[in-house]
Structure to design on (259 residues):
């Protein structure tokens, strides 16, 4: 995620989650196949955490070749994540920095055994008296999500998620290309479907995050036309920005006092 790290390190009002690592693995995800990446000084993790920013390890992405073949594989990965990135004593790519949890950005339709991953990770953290462990999920805006649910057996059918960052972009049926009413309706489907979770609206931070990203809405239109409607919903959690440094932080600055 490149420059996102430095951007977040200087943002005092970012308070819910900072997703810093995108982990991809070959098929299936299993112990020993985590590809760790950190492009800058690990001290930035601790700087963010000292400001109250929760730093999460994001798993998945738009690539296709990942998933679990069994519950044992999922639980094995939970142990590896604990050992390398949370409170364990394994070979630690980030040194002594201890992340605050994981984010599931599962986009390939392979939904099996993610509840086993999350449940085992919570169990390990509780057994070791770890700090509060956060688990989030980042579904696409069509409800229900093909990979994460909340249909029976999928991750969001459980109560494991603390935060749900719904991606309201790159989905023409429910992103801003379909109009604000369609976006608000889709958001309400998510909040109704997950009444116990904090549901965030995920936005593109600029119209040029990447050439493939579509569904950008100007900050003024969002702030004036969308935000008042979704903030009144009981389990509204806030706003998630994808690539917030792509416009120099101006989008975050424009909305931060309103969200």
């Amino acid at each position: 995620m490149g420059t996102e790290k430095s951007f977040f390190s200087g943002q005092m009002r970012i308070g819910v989650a900072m997703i810093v690592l995108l982990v991809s693995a070959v098929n299936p995800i299993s112990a020993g196949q985590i590809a760790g990446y950190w492009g800058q000084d690990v001290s930035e993790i601790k700087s963010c955490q000292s400001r109250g920013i929760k730093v999460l390890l994001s798993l998945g992405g738009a690539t296709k070749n990942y998933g679990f073949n069994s519950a044992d594989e999922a639980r094995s990965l939970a142990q590896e994540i604990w050992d390398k990135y949370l409170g364990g004593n394994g070979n630690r790519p980030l040194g002594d920095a201890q992340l605050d949890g994981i984010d599931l950005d599962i986009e390939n339709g392979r939904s099996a055994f993610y509840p086993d991953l999350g449940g085992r990770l919570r169990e390990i953290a509780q057994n070791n008296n770890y700090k509060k462990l956060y688990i989030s999920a980042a579904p696409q805006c069509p409800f229900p999500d093909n990979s994460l649910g909340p249909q029976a057996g999928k991750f969001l059918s459980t109560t494991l998620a603390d935060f749900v960052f719904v991606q309201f972009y790159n989905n023409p049926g429910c992103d801003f290309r379909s109009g604000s009413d369609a976006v608000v309706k889709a958001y309400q489907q998510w909040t109704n479907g997950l009444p116990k979770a904090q549901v965030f609206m995920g936005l593109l931070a600029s119209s040029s995050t990447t050439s493939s990203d579509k569904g950008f809405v100007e900050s003024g239109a969002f702030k004036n036309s969308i935000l008042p409607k979704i903030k009144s919903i009981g389990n509204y959690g806030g706003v998630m920005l994808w690539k917030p440094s792509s416009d120099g932080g101006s989008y975050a600055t424009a909305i931060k006092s309103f969200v």
In short: The chain has one domain: 4-255. DSSP finds seven helices and seven strands in the chain. Confidence is low (pLDDT under 50) at residues 1-14, 24-28.
